[in-house]
Amino acid sequence: MKKGTPIATIMTKNVITLKASDNLERAEHLFRKHHIRHIPVVSGSKIIGMLSYTDLLRISFADAVYEDEEEVDSMVYNMFSLEQVMAKNLVSVSSDTIVKDVAEILSKKEFHALPVVDDGELVGMVTTTDLINFLLQQYED
């Protein structure tokens, strides 16, 4: 196993983001279009929150009851702003944090993605999937 590997080597660098002024329908569109489960919310290049697909599912509970899901989603999504739903107390890491340390953070917390922030700016994102793929690569070498 490659010890001391910085997270910058496995993180996603071209991160899909939202602005606080975006609505939840836009968020759902981005989740589906890009097949992702976490989207940082930014103000300029500074991260101010994180929205997970699970956050959206929590507020669209009516999906299981009504047949016209899109109409229900629109109604529910219009009841909340992105800022009301996103997580605000974020844990982040820098791009030189080693993979082992990131794995320890994610194994002890109840979330599956960490923003990578250098000098106050969002530079990437690392997920549990990134860590699993890194681990699998170690067996290929």
TrEMBL record:
Domain of life per record: Bacteria
Name of the protein described by the UniProt record: CBS domain protein
Source organism (scientific name): Maribacter polysiphoniae
Keywords from the UniProt entry: CBS domain
PROSITE patterns assigned to the protein according to its UniProt record, in alphabetical order: CBS
Listed InterPro entries: CBS_dom (IPR000644), CBS_dom_sf (IPR046342), Diverse_CBS-Domain (IPR051257)
Pfam families: CBS
Domain CBS: 11-70, 86-141
